[in-house]
Specification:
heterodimer; A: mainly alpha; about 80% helix
Amino acid sequence: MSIFEICQWIQESSIGTGIRESTYVFPLIEATHVIGLAMSVGTIAIVDLRLIGATLTKEPVTDVIEQLQPWTLWGFVVQFISGGFLFWSEAARLYPSYSYRAKFVFMFFLGINALLFHTTIYKSVDKWNGDVVTPFRARMAGWIGITFWAAVIFFGRWTAYNLK
Amino acid sequence: MSLLELFKWFDATPISQIIRNSTYIFPVVEVLHLFGLTLLLGTVTVVDLRILGVGMRRQSVSDLAGQLAPWSVGAAILAIVTGILLFLSEAMKCYGNAAFPYKMWFLLGGIILYFATQRKITSPTSRMGSGTLKAIAVLSLILWYGVAIAGRAIAFV
């Protein structure tokens, strides 16, 4: 059984078909997925903007990161669940889509970016916590975060248009 | 001029036709509209939830609101400019769309509330009662999320 056939099977399951053909469920899930952007990417963007010195520069970096992290994580929970249901209903259309694949490639690199940030430069945050201009590696992590999340939104929306 | 004639005029502008005749302009403008939504709703949510005492409590409301305001306003401008372009390209679809007027009323309400209350919220010496402030935060969340939900509904109703 190929991956594409598995996706067809997922899409044709009773839940997949039910979501796809429902008048209200599909739009509601999609609305949730769009609005969840505020909580997930919106709060991450504020952290990244702090790292590049573009907002909340009067506040310590740790205050911004520690206090927004739970919101970001809950935002991700909303996005993964709503996104999971959307995938369930359209798996065979999404799996071959280059935009959809690109979205996940960018999210993979965003994961690496966050991991590297937290395991390296963030360890020494006490030395630069109040700085408007944070160390180069922290600024890099912020810029990569902003541009790659923008790419995730771009490819996510692009997926719906079925363009190459 | 009736509303219908006005919408027909919007629908027929050169910009409307350029966007409609292109495969890529509409999706690109819509992506930019989503960037605006993400940043606007993100910053507004953080400030309003701070007022409600849910998070970011190490920072004062006025500090948070004051520093995030340029990003809220910038994001709103991006969303409105791109929104106008999207509207022009499908004005006749918006005319008669059940969700579109709701989105516009929520938007108008959100903008009025923002500019009517922003100075007091960002002023460290504001003596606005916390009950009033919390009511404003709840109303702000309802209005801005109303804009987003009604906006998404345009595609489905």
